[in-house]
Amino acid sequence: MIDLQAHSTVVYRSLGYDVLDRKTVHFPHATLAQLAAAIAMRLMRREAFLASLVLLFCATFVQAQEPVSPLTVSETGVIRFTPTVPSSDVRRGLCWTESIAVTRSGAWRCMVDNGISDPCFTIPAKQDELVCGANPALKTDGFVVKLTKPLPKSSHPNRKPQPWEFRLADNSICEAMTGTLPAVNGEPARWSCAIHIRDQVRPAGVVTKLTPGKIWMADKFPQSAIGTQGATPEKVPVKVVWE
């Protein structure tokens, strides 16, 4: 007669275990081959489970180490810009027409210190003062302009707001141009883009078209594409739009 208990102990130890779990391996009517097969199956399941844990840990570690793409945007924010009113910098000037940069009511094109400021925003509580030079993307407050003449009557009181300034997913800031617009593929490039690093400003191309949506997309071209035909735009997600 074969002592299955003794043989099972030998089989278990031959597989690298010093102690036999008698509750787990208890086959009073099994042959030695059946007993060995059962033990081997349990070991295979245990090793497969451990391997799965290792693979799961590795996958989690790799995913945690992967950098987030700089072009990842979940949703584009659209903001109607309202500047704060600076208290220290006050200048004198006049505004003769509505803003070219910002197509909405309350935005004007003004002459200040022998230079043009566009856009300048009206201050609701004061009819003779505006805020010029404010930039939400660069977080600059600008200055107050005290009018030497009243504002002219608006010729387009119900103008539909259009994007004035926006930040792309590549962190370039694009702003509406007010002079002669350059062209790419025969289309006017409405916005000029730049990368701002401390006090340095580096040109970063132009945008000819914005496509609204949950995530706005910009058709962006390099500076070298200006005045050319057949250039292919880079589709860049938009982080924030200011109107």
Q: Helix segment count?
A: 2
State the major sheet. 6 strands, antiparallel, barrel
pLDDT averaged residue by residue: 81
Proportion of strand residues:
25-35%
Descriptors for this entry?
243 residues; alpha+beta; six-stranded antiparallel beta barrel; 2 helices; 19% helix
Structural commentary:
With 243 residues, the protein is of the alpha+beta class. It has three domains: 62 residues, no CATH class; 67 residues, no CATH class; 78 residues, no CATH class. The chain is 19% helix and 35% strand. It has two helices and 14 strands; from the N terminus they run ααββββββββββββββ. It has a six-stranded antiparallel barrel. Strands 2-3-4-5-6 form a five-stranded mixed barrel. Strands 9-10 form a two-stranded antiparallel ribbon. A hairpin with a 4-residue loop joins strand 7 and strand 8. It starts with a helix and ends with a strand. The N terminus is likely disordered.
Question: What's the helix and strand layout?
Answer:
Layout: H1 4-14, H2 32-65, E1 77-79, E2 90-98, E3 107-112, E4 115-123, E5 126-132, E6 143-147, E7 165-168, E8 173-176, E9 183-184, E10 187-188, E11 191-197, E12 200-211, E13 217-221, E14 234-242
Parallel strand pairs: 1-14, 2-6
Antiparallel strand pairs: 2-3, 3-4, 4-5, 5-6, 7-8, 7-14, 8-11, 9-10, 11-12, 12-13, 13-14
In short:
This protein has about 240 residues and is an alpha+beta fold.
